[in-house]
């Protein structure tokens, strides 16, 4: 893999970094989507992964977590159910409520999706040297902190304040 070109003067401003990072993430996402098992859209894969990660959840919760309108989340749930990847279960706390749950096939698809994407990315990362891998690991830590939810950030800040030696 070629080495990364030196950062240009002024390219480390938040605006310049945001532009470069957004384009790089789009390209990585596009390449990873080529590794997806066929048959599902990117939105369907994401929704399926959310159900796998969160466990049973209401369609409204899926809509909120995936930033989808309720009608779109319902259509995604319908497609996933038609494909045999999720099933609708009665909500034990709400007689009218329905929750989405993963089927065994849904779990298999999620695992296969992750395996294929991770394998492709690992092959690409294996081309980097140790210092590049260390830099990337540090960058991933930073990126993960950037995408934390506001509630997670507030909780972390509150915890940090409680642990502060100045208190």
Could you write a compact summary of the structure shown?
The chain has 167 residues and is mainly alpha-helical.
Describe the model.
There is one protein chain. The chain is mostly helical. The protein folds into two domains: 13-127, Arc Repressor Mutant, subunit A (Orthogonal Bundle), CATH 1.10.10; 128-167, no CATH class. Helix content is 64%, strand content 10%. The chain is built from seven helices and three strands; from the N terminus they run H-H-E-H-H-E-E-H-H-H. The protein has helices spanning 14-33, 42-54, 59-66, 70-82, 104-125, 130-146, 150-163, and strands spanning 57-58, 86-91, 94-102. Strands 1-3-2 form a three-stranded antiparallel beta sheet. A hairpin with a 2-residue loop joins strand 2 and strand 3. The protein is globular and about 55 Å long. The model has no long low-confidence stretch (mean pLDDT 84).
What is the strand arrangement across the widest sheet?
1-3-2
**How would the global form be characterised?**
globular
Task: Tell me the span between the first and last alpha carbons.
Answer: 49 Å
Count of discrete domains: 2
Kindly state the number of beta strands.
Answer: 3
Rounded to an integer in angstroms, the radius of gyration calculated over CA atoms is 20 Å
Architecture of the largest domain, CATH level 2? Orthogonal Bundle
Counting DSSP H or I runs of 4 or more residues, the number of helices is: 7
| Strand percentage | 5-15%
Strand and helix order: HHEHHEEHHH
Which class of the largest domain in CATH terms?
Mainly Alpha
Broad structural category: mainly alpha
Q: Uncertain runs with pLDDT below 50, 5 residues or more?
A: none
